[in-house]
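Hypothesis: this fold can be encoded by more than one sequence.
Test: take the structure tokens below, design a sequence, compare later.
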């Protein structure tokens, strides 16, 4: 009996509060089928910007 396991990918997005960079990154991440099921961690030094982009990522998550 063959057992298959799927490796989970963890993606850490440094500078996630950047709207210009973030929007295209989210689009690419959420439309790449090979990354389905991955864990996305957002990091930024600006808490307000990070909160905005976190909310956007949650809205865009399929």
């Amino acid at each position: 009996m063959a057992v298959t396991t799927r490796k989970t990918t963890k993606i850490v997005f440094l500078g996630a509060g950047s709207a210009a960079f973030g929007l295209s990154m989210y689009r690419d991440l959420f439309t790449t089928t090979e990354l389905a099921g991955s864990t996305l961690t957002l990091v930024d030094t600006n808490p307000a910007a990070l909160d905005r982009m976190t909310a956007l990522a949650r809205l865009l998550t399929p």
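The CA atoms of residues 11 and 40 lie 5 Å apart. The longest helix spans residues 47-60.
Hypothesis status: open.
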